[in-house]
Every structure is written in structure tokens, then in C-alpha cells.
Amino acid sequence: MTGSASEFEQLFRDTYRVFHRRDGRRSGLTGASWAVLTHLSLTGPVTVGEAAQHLDRAQSVVSDIVTQLEGKGLVERRADSADRRRTHVWITPEGVDALRADERVLGLDLLTDAFERMPAAEATSLLASLRRLVDAAPATHERTPS
């Protein structure tokens, strides 16, 4: 099986070379902005103070970041229904979409074109085989949810 692993490794590198994203970062957001968006996607709504504490940043810095993200429609502030003095920051569907788009390693347009050129049965078989390969990985490896 070492030969199969070696061949897969080479094909994986070739796949990356052929299909990697060529459009660069789409959003132009800073690393700090991405950190806030990612944090909100993992924790759900939090106050600016809670986010600042979790991210180990000054509350004023996180507040400025949230204001910028809010201006881009990627987050929104909502009053706490139990305590109107508190405001929570929520990631919007546009914010979730921006995170997903930026996380992409491969160009979906390139992959779509290639899959459309393949016979449907081969495309289905390829995807099923890759799912089985990922499922066969040791449980100690981190998996990204689909």
C-alpha cells in the first residue's frame, strides 16, 4: 500500500497545482477582523466585552473592528432580550459566506469545469472514494466539517 500512498501524495500535489485558487483574498479584511468573524462563527453571539476578553484584545479595539464589520454587513448588533442594556454581536449570513469563501483552498470554478468534463459516474466514484479515504483516517486527525 505504500505505493498507493505515494501515488496519492503526488496526485494531491498535482491537484493543488492545477486547481488552487487564483483570485487571491476576496474581502481585503485584516487578520484581526478575520479573528473576530471566526470567533463569532464558533461561539455564537457575544458582547463586545466578551469577544475582547476571548481574543485578548482591548475592548475599544474589538469595538472598532465590530463597527467596521458591521459597515460591511458581516456582523450585526442586537439588543439582549433579557437585558436591554446589553448588546450582542452576531455574525450575519454574509459573514458566514465570507468566511467560507476565504477558507477555500481550491478554485470552485476550476473544479466545476473539470467535473463537468468528467462522466457523471466517474465524478460520483471519485467523490465516494475520497470520502472513504477521509473516513479511513485515524481518529486523532482533525476533520473540517463540510
From TrEMBL:
Gene3D superfamilies: Winged helix-like DNA-binding domain superfamily/Winged helix DNA-binding domain
Keyword tags: DNA-binding, Transcription, Transcription regulation
Any coiled-coil regions, as ranges: none
Keyword Signal: no
The keyword Transcription regulation is annotated on this UniProt entry: yes
Pfam families assigned: MarR_2 (PF12802)
Domain of life: Bacteria
InterPro entries found in the cross-reference section: HTH_MarR-typ, MarR/SlyA-like, Tscrpt_reg_MarR-type_CS, WH-like_DNA-bd_sf, WH_DNA-bd_sf
Domain HTH marR-type: 1-135
Name under which the protein is recorded: MarR family winged helix-turn-helix transcriptional regulator
